[in-house]
Design goal:
- The protein is an alpha/beta fold.
- It has two domains: 151 residues, 60s Ribosomal Protein L30, Chain: A (2-Layer Sandwich); 34 residues, no CATH class.
- Helix content is 28%, strand content 28%.
- The protein contains five helices and eight strands; from the N terminus they run ββββαβααβββαα.
- The strands form two sheets. Strands 1, 5, 6, 7 and 8 form a five-stranded mixed β-sheet that branches. A three-stranded antiparallel β-sheet has the order 2-4-3, with no helix packed on it.
- A hairpin with a 2-residue loop joins strand 3 and strand 4.
- The longest helix is centred in the middle third of the chain and has 21 residues.
- The radius of gyration is 24 Å and the shape is extended.
- It starts with a strand and ends with a helix.
Length: 199
């Protein structure tokens, strides 16, 4: 059974912000002089396509590679194998982000602004940082990204000149976590079958 704990140092990089660029792909064959064109991607007689890229670039790629290396090292040290299909995996992540410089005074104590902002409720979004980390670690821990079906996330600020990065625990699971059952029961929207309650 996979159950590993590891950390990845650095500044977590988010994934998910995409940029699109129009690209001319040639003249439209359906255009007729003096008549509106019905070509799907025709703009003024030119066929236009779109190139979409992730804005993370090489920084995102390097971060995902580092997450992969740390996950693979932790898995190998534990003598575990990737969770095989159709097994399910839980991945818990705590992102440790640097505080803005204005949150500290020269002595390393929190300023008034720092005290008023105990958690990093600013960009980058925790889900975008998680997406980048998932892409890196899933190659080492599971056969398919879809096997990660439980994923509690948290984001905190680092201490004065403290460590930054992400702390990860990944483990194979075979039942619904207690907190999820509690929320489902509160809303009366789902009950486990008799067989599931025996697991």
């Amino acid at each position: 059974m996979l159950d590993v704990r590891f950390k990845v140092e650095g500044i977590p990089v988010p994934k998910g912000s995409m940029a699109g660029f129009p690209i001319a792909r040639g003249k439209c064959d359906e255009c007729k002089p003096g008549k509106p064109c019905r070509g799907r991607s025709c703009f003024g007689g030119t066929i236009v396509g779109v190139s979409v890229t992730d804005q993370g670039g090489k920084e995102l790629e390097a971060w995902q590679d580092l997450v992969f290396v740390r996950a693979l090292s932790a898995r190998n040290a534990a003598g575990a194998r990737p969770v095989a299909r159709p097994g399910a995996c839980e991945v818990m992540m705590v992102f440790v982000m640097p505080r803005p410089a204005g949150h500290w005074n020269a002595a390393g104590a929190l300023t008034k602004e720092g005290l008023s902002k105990p958690l990093p409720s600013v960009k980058p979004d925790v889900d975008k940082m998680a997406r980048a980390a998932f892409d890196g670690l899933s190659r080492a821990l599971v056969e398919d990204d879809a096997q990660i079906c439980v994923a509690p996330l948290a984001e905190v600020y680092a201490g004065w000149k403290g460590w930054t990065g992400v702390v990860i625990r990944a483990r194979q699971v075979s039942s619904v976590p207690a907190w999820a059952l509690e929320e489902l029961a509160h809303h009366c929207v789902w009950q486990p079958s008799a067989q599931e309650t025996l697991l």
